[in-house]
Amino acid sequence: MGRVVVKGRQAEANAHVPLPVRDGVSPSYLWLTETLAGGMLRFLCERFPDVSREAWAARLARGEIVDAKGAALGPDSQVRQGMRIWYYRELEQAETPIPFHEKVLFQDAHILVADKPHFLPTIPTGRFLKETLLVRLKRAHDLPHLVPIHRLDRETAGVVIFSHNPDSRGAYQSMFQKRVVKKTYEALAPTMPGREFPFTYRSRMQDAEQFFVSEEVEGEPNSETLIEVIEQRGGLARYRLHPHTGRKHQLRLHLSRLGAPIVNDAFYPVALPCKGDDFRSPLQLLARSIAFDDPLSGQPRSFDSQFSLDWPD
Question: What is the pTM of this model?
Answer without folding.
Answer: 0.86
